[in-house]
Amino acid sequence: MLVEKLLLHVLIILAPVLIQTSLLENHRLGKSPIFIGVLHGIAAFMCLIFAYESFGLYWDFRYIPLVLSMLYGGRKAGVIVFLFILTARIINGGDAIVFGFISAFLAGLMPFLISSRFWSFSPRKRVNFAVLLGFWPALVMLGILLSFAFISGVPVSGNKEMGIYVLIFGGIQVVGVGLAAQLNEWMIEKKLLREEILKSEKLNTLGELAASIAHEVRNPLTVVKGFLQLMKKQVNGDHDEYLKIVLSELGRAEEIINDYLNFAKPEFEKIEKINVKDVLSDVTLLLNAYALKEGVHLESNVKEDGFLLTDRNKLKQAFVNIIKNAIEATPSQGNVTVSLEVTHTQAIVRIKDTGKGMTKEQVARIGTLFYTTKDQGTGLGTSVSLRIIEAMGGHVHYSSIVNKGTSATISLPLNSEKVVKYDSKSANRFMNNQNA
User: Fold this and answer.
1) Most buried among 118, 202, 375, 425, using CB within 10 Å?
2) What is the pTM of this model?
């Protein structure tokens, strides 16, 4: 009979969470600490009203709503549940009413003191924290049980039935707290996902507008740059130096716009069967002079053949950006190693450097639009490179250790015919995922 009652209580304590999730998720009332307190208070009241009475005590889960309301609704909600518990306990009456008041106060004290730190944890840790905190009321009730048994003369030593009750009660209570906490976290995650979707829709519109504006801005820039180049041939003296600076900055602006457009709407223009080994050999040969200029030793270990169907120039662009980043992140006398491993299904390119490395937070943000660790840079190059690799059906994995270096592992499917021409909407979906 005890198990049936306690399982009924589990359903009762899950009811407030389900009501918030299904009926009041988007309503202001569902966020009110007072309303949350009333919902959980009613659940605690019902648990106590339908409690299982044995050994002169009430066996119920009245304190689970108290813990949950303190953690997810705040202290105001917890106090409201506490008042509901006291009211229900007065209605029930009995010889152990004083012990009921004491246990309610002690059970609510720990969650009340710790609730302010609860939201500093990650979602998984919050669930674990709630489960651990669920042990506290069980310990309090066990202490009250022993105290009442001692005062009333109920034998505890050798009482197997009471021991079984304690074990069943504690086990189901922990499960109930865990289920309720997990439901709360799902509700929070669902709400955050809805907000991200709404935000993504807005960013999608802005991204389309930005791409069209960038395209229109590039045209007059090209014209201005052309006329300035003609003027530079005819002007000498101090003005010549100014024109060099203007042309340099115009070129930089044009490069940024081109990168953005390449990210927003890339197209694989010429699809052909290429050898990854040949592309990597060309890129390392091209960047070797740049590496020597920076005092970095660029080593290539590319021997195996790996063929895939794609745009050679786009793949070359992705490799150039990633290897160039490795060179720029490596101090003088450092090393950058490019290697190729070919399996039956994949070509795996590894680019390792002995540079300054990155923290876990920095690695997690790689590929985010306009994020860069360089003093001068836009972050577009890396974003475009990752997008090109992804369009080919591959992926890039970064691992890094601060002051030891970074490793980029690029996996490309061999003989892949997956060639995607992205429109601006899919581009902005990708951008929103990166920024999320």
Assistant:
1) 118
2) 0.47
